[in-house]
Amino acid sequence: MRKRVAILISGGGSNMLALARDMADRNHPGLPCVVVSNRPDAGGLEKAREMGIDALALDHRIFKGDRAAFEAELTRTLEEYGTEIVCLAGFMRILTPAFIDRWAGQMINIHPSILPLFPGLETHRRAIEAGMSVHGCTVHEVTADLDSGPILGQAVIPIERGDTPGTLASRLLKMEHRLYPAVLRRFAAGDRTKVTIMGDVQEPGPGPG
Ligand code: GAR
Q: Measured from the CB, is residue 111 less than 6 Å from ligand 1?
């Protein structure tokens, strides 16, 4: 039986699309059951519907700061769809321990840095400012501490001279679209072996002599 996968988003949903496209394969161990956004204007909702996936908005603002009430409604929705795996894909809400406990061992997230480096926001700018020569993304299990659950896979790319947070983010996003589906395939099959993807790291040539 394929595992029922819910994908939570807040924005454009390009990672959600990468996961959904991969799950279009009938032999995939996961099956998308619903896409939920905490923002009604998230572009990803329409893209999911175009793929024939149920997509719902659950506007966190309606709950006026009551995280527990928002999450209770989110869990109710996920349960209604028979969710067995939750993929956070650019879902920009901090989750409470109660929600994380409910989905323990069943919830994974993609984060745009080589964790444990640069948890939190503005990872691309921080990697450049720290003088890193590489950057990357991590898929990990979600646990109570922010961006620090067991690592399931990582992809690495070089930071190039002249990179801005924007250029770096868009190059990394392409890697995210490779990493997340690769990890989900394993995770949905009960395999937690880490996935490692190394981007084109150019060896310097011999030079002019
Ligand atoms: C992705 O880069 C993802 O790694 C990041 O948000 C972006 C969502 O893009 N997630 C986080 O920063 C989580 N802390 P998408 O909506 O196009 O998938």
A: yes
Helices (H), 10-164: 14-23, 43-50, 67-80, 97-102, 123-129
pLDDT, averaged per 10 consecutive residues of the chain (209 residues), comes to 98 97 98 98 97 97 95 98 98 96 98 98 98 98 95 98 98 98 98 95 54
Residue 19 burial by CB count (10 A; 0-12/13-18/19+): exposed, middle or buried?
A: buried
Reported pTM: 0.95
Q: Which CATH superfamily is domain 110-209 in?
A: Formyl transferase, N-terminal domain (3.40.50.170)
User: Could you identify the atom of ligand 1 that is nearest to the CA of residue 18?
Assistant: 18
Residues annotated catalytic, as ranges: 111
110 lines ligand 1 (CB under 6 A): yes
Question: What pLDDT score was predicted for residue 142?
Answer: 98
Give nearest CA residue, ligand 1 atom 8.
90
